[in-house]
Protein backbone atom coordinates (compact mmCIF):
# COMPACT_ATOMS: atom_id res chain seq x y z
CA UNK A 1 0.00 0.00 0.00
CA UNK A 2 1.43 3.39 -1.02
CA UNK A 3 1.72 6.40 1.25
CA UNK A 4 -1.27 8.15 -0.39
CA UNK A 5 -3.46 5.05 -0.15
CA UNK A 6 -2.49 4.56 3.49
CA UNK A 7 -3.41 8.17 4.27
CA UNK A 8 -6.80 7.85 2.54
CA UNK A 9 -7.53 4.58 4.37
CA UNK A 10 -6.64 6.22 7.73
CA UNK A 11 -8.95 9.18 7.03
CA UNK A 12 -11.83 6.86 6.11
CA UNK A 13 -11.27 4.83 9.29
CA UNK A 14 -11.16 8.01 11.39
CA UNK A 15 -14.39 9.21 9.84
CA UNK A 16 -16.04 5.86 10.58
CA UNK A 17 -15.02 6.16 14.23
CA UNK A 18 -16.52 9.66 14.35
CA UNK A 19 -19.81 8.27 13.04
CA UNK A 20 -19.88 5.59 15.73
CA UNK A 21 -19.19 8.18 18.44
CA UNK A 22 -21.93 10.40 17.06
CA UNK A 23 -24.41 7.50 17.15
CA UNK A 24 -23.46 6.77 20.76
CA UNK A 25 -24.36 10.37 21.65
CA UNK A 26 -27.76 10.34 19.93
CA UNK A 27 -30.79 11.09 22.09
CA UNK A 28 -33.26 8.23 22.56
CA UNK A 29 -36.85 8.37 23.80
CA UNK A 30 -38.10 7.08 27.15
CA UNK A 31 -40.36 8.06 30.05
CA UNK A 32 -39.62 9.08 33.63
CA UNK A 33 -41.39 9.18 36.99
CA UNK A 34 -40.12 9.82 40.50
CA UNK A 35 -40.09 8.04 43.84
CA UNK A 36 -41.39 10.11 46.74
CA UNK A 37 -38.89 10.16 49.61
CA UNK A 38 -39.08 12.39 52.68
CA UNK A 39 -35.80 14.16 51.84
CA UNK A 40 -36.32 14.18 48.07
CA UNK A 41 -33.66 11.54 47.46
CA UNK A 42 -33.39 7.82 46.83
CA UNK A 43 -31.33 6.61 49.78
CA UNK A 44 -32.28 2.95 50.22
CA UNK A 45 -30.28 0.01 48.99
CA UNK A 46 -31.25 -0.98 45.47
CA UNK A 47 -30.62 -3.79 43.03
CA UNK A 48 -27.06 -2.63 42.32
CA UNK A 49 -26.04 -3.21 45.94
CA UNK A 50 -24.68 0.28 46.56
CA UNK A 51 -26.39 0.70 49.94
CA UNK A 52 -26.78 4.27 51.21
CA UNK A 53 -26.43 6.24 47.99
CA UNK A 54 -25.26 9.38 49.79
CA UNK A 55 -22.29 7.51 51.21
CA UNK A 56 -21.39 6.22 47.74
CA UNK A 57 -21.67 9.80 46.34
CA UNK A 58 -24.59 9.05 44.00
CA UNK A 59 -27.24 10.62 46.24
CA UNK A 60 -30.27 12.23 44.64
CA UNK A 61 -28.87 11.86 41.12
CA UNK A 62 -29.66 8.15 41.06
CA UNK A 63 -32.20 6.20 39.04
CA UNK A 64 -33.92 2.85 38.77
CA UNK A 65 -33.95 1.45 35.25
CA UNK A 66 -36.57 -0.68 33.51
CA UNK A 67 -35.63 -4.24 32.49
CA UNK A 68 -34.39 -3.46 29.01
CA UNK A 69 -32.09 -0.70 30.31
CA UNK A 70 -30.99 -2.46 33.52
CA UNK A 71 -29.78 -5.45 31.51
CA UNK A 72 -29.60 -7.87 34.47
CA UNK A 73 -27.42 -5.46 36.46
CA UNK A 74 -24.70 -4.85 33.91
CA UNK A 75 -25.82 -1.21 33.58
CA UNK A 76 -25.21 -0.49 37.28
CA UNK A 77 -23.00 2.58 37.59
CA UNK A 78 -23.63 3.85 34.07
CA UNK A 79 -24.42 7.54 33.63
CA UNK A 80 -27.28 8.98 31.61
CA UNK A 81 -28.24 12.51 30.65
CA UNK A 82 -32.01 13.09 30.72
CA UNK A 83 -34.18 15.98 29.59
CA UNK A 84 -37.96 16.37 29.60
CA UNK A 85 -39.43 16.94 26.13
CA UNK A 86 -42.70 17.37 24.25
CA UNK A 87 -44.93 18.31 27.18
CA UNK A 88 -45.70 22.00 27.47
CA UNK A 89 -47.39 21.65 30.87
CA UNK A 90 -44.86 19.50 32.74
CA UNK A 91 -41.42 20.07 31.15
CA UNK A 92 -39.43 22.99 32.54
CA UNK A 93 -38.77 25.83 30.15
CA UNK A 94 -35.71 25.30 27.97
CA UNK A 95 -35.65 21.54 28.63
CA UNK A 96 -32.74 21.54 31.13
CA UNK A 97 -30.98 18.22 31.54
CA UNK A 98 -29.77 16.21 34.53
CA UNK A 99 -27.07 13.54 34.84
CA UNK A 100 -28.12 10.33 36.62
CA UNK A 101 -26.33 7.16 37.73
CA UNK A 102 -28.02 3.78 37.35
CA UNK A 103 -28.31 2.38 40.89
CA UNK A 104 -31.49 0.31 40.95
CA UNK A 105 -33.95 -1.84 39.01
CA UNK A 106 -37.48 -0.67 38.26
CA UNK A 107 -39.47 -3.93 38.23
CA UNK A 108 -42.30 -4.55 35.76
CA UNK A 109 -45.93 -4.63 36.89
CA UNK A 110 -47.81 -6.59 34.26
CA UNK A 111 -51.05 -6.23 36.20
CA UNK A 112 -51.15 -2.61 35.07
CA UNK A 113 -51.16 -1.02 31.64
CA UNK A 114 -47.78 0.16 30.33
CA UNK A 115 -49.36 3.60 29.98
CA UNK A 116 -50.64 3.73 33.55
CA UNK A 117 -48.58 2.20 36.35
CA UNK A 118 -46.77 -0.44 34.31
CA UNK A 119 -44.15 2.00 33.12
CA UNK A 120 -41.30 -0.44 33.64
CA UNK A 121 -42.96 -3.30 31.77
CA UNK A 122 -40.76 -4.88 29.11
CA UNK A 123 -39.78 -3.52 26.60
CA UNK A 124 -40.49 0.00 27.90
CA UNK A 125 -37.48 2.29 28.44
CA UNK A 126 -38.13 4.05 31.72
CA UNK A 127 -36.27 5.89 34.49
CA UNK A 128 -37.47 5.98 38.11
CA UNK A 129 -35.84 9.12 39.52
CA UNK A 130 -35.58 10.76 42.92
CA UNK A 131 -38.04 13.59 43.43
CA UNK A 132 -35.20 16.12 43.76
CA UNK A 133 -33.62 15.11 40.44
CA UNK A 134 -37.02 14.95 38.70
CA UNK A 135 -37.71 18.54 39.82
CA UNK A 136 -34.64 19.68 37.88
CA UNK A 137 -36.28 18.76 34.57
CA UNK A 138 -40.05 18.77 35.17
CA UNK A 139 -42.83 19.99 37.44
CA UNK A 140 -43.31 17.90 40.58
CA UNK A 141 -47.06 17.77 39.86
CA UNK A 142 -46.38 15.60 36.82
CA UNK A 143 -47.16 11.91 37.06
CA UNK A 144 -45.09 10.65 34.13
CA UNK A 145 -43.16 12.68 31.57
CA UNK A 146 -41.66 11.91 28.17
CA UNK A 147 -37.87 12.27 28.17
CA UNK A 148 -34.89 11.93 25.92
CA UNK A 149 -31.77 10.25 27.23
CA UNK A 150 -28.23 9.40 26.19
CA UNK A 151 -25.23 7.68 27.73
CA UNK A 152 -22.54 10.08 28.94
CA UNK A 153 -19.19 9.74 30.66
CA UNK A 154 -19.31 9.56 34.44
CA UNK A 155 -17.48 12.35 36.24
CA UNK A 156 -16.23 11.09 39.61
CA UNK A 157 -14.09 12.55 42.37
CA UNK A 158 -11.31 10.37 43.69
CA UNK A 159 -10.58 6.79 42.70
CA UNK A 160 -12.54 3.57 42.44
CA UNK A 161 -13.78 2.38 45.83
CA UNK A 162 -13.54 -1.24 46.91
CA UNK A 163 -15.77 -2.31 49.84
CA UNK A 164 -14.84 -5.75 51.20
CA UNK A 165 -17.16 -8.36 52.70
CA UNK A 166 -17.30 -12.13 53.16
CA UNK A 167 -15.73 -14.76 55.39
CA UNK A 168 -12.78 -17.16 55.44
CA UNK A 169 -14.09 -19.08 52.42
CA UNK A 170 -15.98 -16.37 50.54
CA UNK A 171 -14.56 -13.04 49.34
CA UNK A 172 -16.75 -10.26 47.94
CA UNK A 173 -16.09 -6.71 46.81
CA UNK A 174 -18.52 -3.91 45.98
CA UNK A 175 -17.05 -1.51 43.41
CA UNK A 176 -18.32 2.08 43.36
CA UNK A 177 -17.33 5.54 42.12
CA UNK A 178 -16.34 4.24 38.68
CA UNK A 179 -15.51 7.04 36.23
CA UNK A 180 -15.94 7.31 32.44
CA UNK A 181 -17.98 4.21 31.43
CA UNK A 182 -19.35 3.70 34.94
CA UNK A 183 -20.13 0.06 34.12
CA UNK A 184 -17.86 -2.75 35.31
CA UNK A 185 -17.94 -5.91 33.19
CA UNK A 186 -15.07 -7.94 34.67
CA UNK A 187 -13.00 -8.01 37.86
CA UNK A 188 -9.89 -9.90 38.96
CA UNK A 189 -8.35 -10.00 42.43
CA UNK A 190 -4.80 -10.80 43.46
CA UNK A 191 -3.17 -11.46 46.82
CA UNK A 192 0.55 -11.30 47.48
CA UNK A 193 0.65 -15.11 47.34
CA UNK A 194 -1.67 -15.67 44.37
CA UNK A 195 -1.91 -14.87 40.69
CA UNK A 196 -4.82 -12.91 39.20
CA UNK A 197 -8.11 -14.65 40.07
CA UNK A 198 -11.27 -13.90 37.99
CA UNK A 199 -14.28 -12.90 40.07
CA UNK A 200 -17.93 -13.53 39.20
CA UNK A 201 -20.78 -11.06 39.41
CA UNK A 202 -22.84 -11.90 42.48
CA UNK A 203 -25.45 -9.18 42.00
CA UNK A 204 -25.30 -5.57 40.80
CA UNK A 205 -21.71 -4.43 41.25
CA UNK A 206 -20.88 -7.00 43.91
CA UNK A 207 -18.18 -9.40 42.71
CA UNK A 208 -17.17 -12.62 44.46
CA UNK A 209 -14.88 -15.63 44.47
CA UNK A 210 -14.24 -18.54 46.86
CA UNK A 211 -10.82 -17.84 48.32
CA UNK A 212 -9.17 -16.83 51.58
CA UNK A 213 -6.99 -13.73 51.11
CA UNK A 214 -6.57 -12.87 54.78
CA UNK A 215 -3.14 -11.52 55.70
CA UNK A 216 -2.29 -10.58 52.11
CA UNK A 217 -2.20 -7.15 50.44
CA UNK A 218 -4.97 -7.12 47.81
CA UNK A 219 -4.86 -5.80 44.25
CA UNK A 220 -7.80 -5.43 41.84
CA UNK A 221 -8.00 -5.36 38.06
CA UNK A 222 -11.23 -3.79 36.79
CA UNK A 223 -12.48 -3.87 33.20
CA UNK A 224 -15.05 -1.31 32.07
CA UNK A 225 -17.68 -1.75 29.35
CA UNK A 226 -15.44 -0.02 26.80
CA UNK A 227 -12.85 -2.76 27.30
CA UNK A 228 -10.43 -0.53 29.19
CA UNK A 229 -8.69 -2.22 32.12
CA UNK A 230 -7.33 -0.55 35.25
CA UNK A 231 -5.21 -2.22 37.90
CA UNK A 232 -4.95 -0.91 41.47
CA UNK A 233 -2.02 -2.67 43.15
CA UNK A 234 -1.97 -3.37 46.91
CA UNK A 235 -5.02 -1.15 47.35
CA UNK A 236 -5.78 -2.97 50.63
CA UNK A 237 -2.87 -3.59 53.06
CA UNK A 238 -2.12 -6.99 54.58
CA UNK A 239 -4.10 -6.15 57.75
CA UNK A 240 -7.36 -5.33 55.91
CA UNK A 241 -10.67 -6.35 57.50
CA UNK A 242 -14.10 -7.16 56.13
CA UNK A 243 -16.32 -4.08 56.25
CA UNK A 244 -13.55 -1.72 55.20
CA UNK A 245 -13.49 0.37 52.01
CA UNK A 246 -10.31 1.24 50.11
CA UNK A 247 -9.69 3.69 47.28
CA UNK A 248 -7.75 2.77 44.15
CA UNK A 249 -6.96 4.40 40.83
CA UNK A 250 -9.50 6.02 38.52
CA UNK A 251 -10.26 5.67 34.81
CA UNK A 252 -9.10 8.77 32.95
TrEMBL record:
Respond yes or no to whether keyword Secreted is given for this record.
yes
The way this protein sits in the membrane is described as:
Peripheral membrane protein
Q: Which GO terms describe its biological process?
A: anatomical structure morphogenesis; plant-type cell wall organization
InterPro entries in UniProt: Expansin (IPR002963), Expansin/allergen_DPBB_dom (IPR007112), Expansin_CBD (IPR007117), RlpA-like_DPBB (IPR009009)
Cell location: Membrane; Secreted, Cell wall
| Keyword Membrane appears in the UniProt entry | yes
Where does the UniProt annotation place the signal sequence? Answer: 1-22
What positions does the domain Expansin-like CBD occupy? 169-248
Could you give one GO CC term from the UniProt record? membrane
The UniProt record lists the Expansin-like EG45 domain at 45-159
This protein's source sits in the domain of life called Eukaryota
**Keywords tagged on the record:** Cell wall, Cell wall biogenesis/degradation, Membrane, Secreted, Signal
Q: Which SMART domains match?
A: DPBB_1 (SM00837)
Instruction: Tell me the protein family, please.
Output: Belongs to the expansin family. Expansin A subfamily.
Put simply, this protein is called Expansin
Q: Which organism is it from?
A: Carya illinoinensis
Amino acid sequence: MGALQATVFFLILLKACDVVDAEDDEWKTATATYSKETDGSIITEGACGYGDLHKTSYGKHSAGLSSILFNKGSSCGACYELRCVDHILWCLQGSPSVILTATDFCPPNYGLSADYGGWCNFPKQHFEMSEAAFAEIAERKADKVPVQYRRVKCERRGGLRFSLSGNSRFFQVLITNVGLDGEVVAVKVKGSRTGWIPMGRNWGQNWQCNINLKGQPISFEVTASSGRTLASYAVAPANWQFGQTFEGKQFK
